[in-house]
UniProtKB/TrEMBL annotation:
Top-level lineage group: Eukaryota
GO MF: carbon-oxygen lyase activity, acting on phosphates
The keyword Magnesium is annotated on this UniProt entry: yes
Keywords linked to the UniProt accession: Lyase, Magnesium
Family matches, as Gene3D superfamilies: Terpene synthase, N-terminal domain
Domain spans labelled Terpene synthase N-terminal: 8-142
Organism expressing this protein natively: Ilex paraguariensis (yerba mate)
Protein name: Terpene synthase N-terminal domain-containing protein
GO biological process: isoprenoid metabolic process
Pfam families listed in its UniProt record: Terpene_synth (PF01397)
SUPFAM superfamilies listed in its UniProt record: Terpenoid cyclases/Protein prenyltransferases
Length: 152
């Protein structure tokens, strides 16, 4: 009896989540929802809807570092072709990431995760990894210093 109740509740929740994913039209919100489902470990329930959503946002150009890196990571994780050139707009003429990105914590974290999906010939993703590590470590050190914690 109790199992039937849980089973019914689970199916209702899955239908609500499925409806959320299929009704969301904003590309950034779709990506965030897919990312949340993956992090929660429930994405396997919605593989078809996730595939459809990623097909919809495949050619959308994202504006900020966070959503560009999120789109890149999700597309690569799900086997969709995407070029590392999507990060070119965040680089200067020398192929280095712009210093103005160094305080964007969510963007840096997203870039760091995305950089792990590079292939051997994608040196720009190695640069992305080094850039994000450098600035995340710097921000963490500043936070630690400003927090008042003392090293032991």
């Amino acid at each position: 009896m109790q199992y039937e109740l849980y089973g019914t509740t689970l199916e209702e929740l899955k239908q609500k989540a499925r409806g959320l994913l299929t009704s969301e039209k904003e590309p950034c919100a779709q990506l965030k929802l897919i990312d949340s489902m993956q992090r929660l470990g429930v994405a396997y329930h919605f593989e078809e809807e996730i595939r459809d959503s990623l097909n919809q946002v495949r050619d959308v150009v994202m504006g900020d570092l966070y959503t560009t890196a999120l789109q890149f990571r999700l597309m690569r994780e799900h086997g969709h072709p995407i070029c590392s050139g999507v990060f070119d707009k965040f680089q200067d003429g020398n192929g280095r990431f712009m210093d103005s990105l160094s305080k964007d914590v969510t963007g840096l974290l997203s870039l760091y995760e995305a950089s792990h999906l590079g292939m051997n010939s994608e040196d720009d993703l190695e640069e992305a990894k080094n850039f994000s590590i450098k600035h995340l470590m710097s921000l963490a050190g500043k936070w630690w210093k400003d927090s008042g914690f003392k090293k032991t």
